[in-house]
């Protein structure tokens, strides 16, 4: 009952005209950003975050904007997957497998509408999950002390290390680079300057917005130089725009379980939309692919991954809101946005800032309804935008990103720093260091250090406190397992396939 | 190979930063862990990871070559120059120049890039500075 009351309060926040308008704008921009190949939710959120801050939006409005962009990207990615056979973002890779064949068979409209519908169902299932589980988890995590928090953050980083990228050492190194960058600036406890080289611009540390824009906007446009998708033509939509009842019934079951799987994967730190859509596509294929239709335009192969990537995006809000530990790169950026407003995400948020938490949750509902409307009847508006020429789009992204950075401090120093971090990010990404780990490290850096020092202050320097309680011990063990198990599984799989090859060649 | 070069550079950087970090000190210590230990711990862990990478590097990196490398270099210079002249030349002028520079890299025609750049510079300036109240440098033309 309490939850319903809070949810009502949240809807009151989300339905304010200003917030509604922001959700509409965010959904629209998000769909475009998600649709454009190369730009994904993290880029969209990164580019809009400084603007939200520069426009002096109140925190709940800024968060609603960013959440709408995040959701919109998960919707938008499918459009280019289906029509261009080029995934608009990483979560939509699987959608191209059956979506593009469907479009080639003249069923582009059906593919687009069923995927929008399953995206919507996935989101709604996940938001209901968020409403049910988040307050419980928040209540439980109130019992966390500094040692438990420290272990939890290590666990989050270890999850990324085990699941993201193919070389765990690179993921860990990326997270460490982020953690180290966060130590630059004045130390909150002692007032000592660290690694500032007596430069006043570095006194409050490397600005979060500069890091985000450098790594996710400037480095992205450098990478875009390499991926010119010429030759691919947009498939014209013909025939039916809307799926029919039979198609809905056919996809209903796989949409539903994909939503649940997607939500669970989204809640886990580290695994995000990409893993969720891959897992559910494979599950749907294993369960339903009796006649070998998957890969040749099976409608369930479109519905399942789309439901999952939206559900996982909503699910990734759970750890951010309840524990204050983001589970994905995009939520890490959003959490950084909250800290810009001097709001510390975590279990206290539910009691101290109910407007923000419940306003955000309610706005996810509202945003998804807006997105469903935008993405079924109005999808033509977006497909036309696929033909915006890159020679205008890329400088536009660069200029708008720079506006956001400049708005924070109005110094050339920040702009140059942004450009240099962009080049550094480009080099790291070329060498396949996962940027999501780096940004997670950067966002968590200060909290990690503070909790470590606080824990050791409590125990007067005795390290045992870090793994004394059963919760922290459990988290340490899980963190260890996260680092060891996935690479072992991968190794075993590789051995098996090597054996299979050996057998087949004999 | 790239991983190895990166690992060596990063080890050197860690060593340099550790030398700087060693000098961090406070006059008064009221907590068991001061401001120095944690950054040094992170540096040590980074050094371990870099050393690992040095001995077990990943697959070769497909760096851009030839014309593409030139494009990447031009883009980096363009973005750096944009950052440097942003305040003095003003948003509109800098953005117009950037659009021409980047637009050419993406095979835009001279005329299209120039017209697009001027329109974008002026339009975005009015949109952000005047309409949304996000202050931008007016610079040479619109100051």
Strand content of chain A: under 5%
- Major beta-sheet overview of chain A: 2 strands, antiparallel
SSE pattern of chain B: HHHHHH
Q: What percentage of residues of chain B falls in helices of 4 or more residues?
A: over 70%
Please work out how many helical segments of chain A DSSP would assign: 21
- Return residue spans of chain B where pLDDT drops below 50 for at least 5 consecutive residues: none
Unreliable residue stretches of chain A: none
Shape of chain B: flat
- What's the SSE pattern of chain A? HHHHHHHHEEHHHHHHHHHHHHH
Oligomer, anyone? Answer: heterodimer
Q: Report the total helices of chain B.
A: 6
Please report the total strand number of chain A as a whole number.
2
Structurally, the number of domains of chain A stands at: 1
Largest sheet of chain B: none
Overview of the structural elements:
The complex is a heterodimer of chains A (506) and B (143). Chain A has helices at residues 2-14, 17-35, 41-54, 59-84, 93-104, 108-141, 146-163, 168-183, 208-224, 245-267, 273-288, 299-315, 317-323, 329-340, 348-352, 354-375, 379-385, 390-409, 412-430, 435-458, 470-505, and strands at residues 185-186, 193-194. Chain A is mostly helical and 506 residues long. Chain A has one domain (2-505). Chain A has a two-stranded antiparallel sheet. In chain A, helix 3 packs antiparallel against helix 4 (59-84), helix 6 runs parallel beside helix 10 and helix 10 (245-267) crosses helix 11. With 143 residues, chain B is mainly α. Chain B has two domains: 2-55; 66-142. Chain B contains six helices and no strands. The model of chain B has no long low-confidence stretch (mean pLDDT 89). Chains A and B meet through helix 8, helix 9, helix 18, helix 19 and helix 20 of A and helix 1, helix 2, helix 3, helix 4 and helix 5 of B.
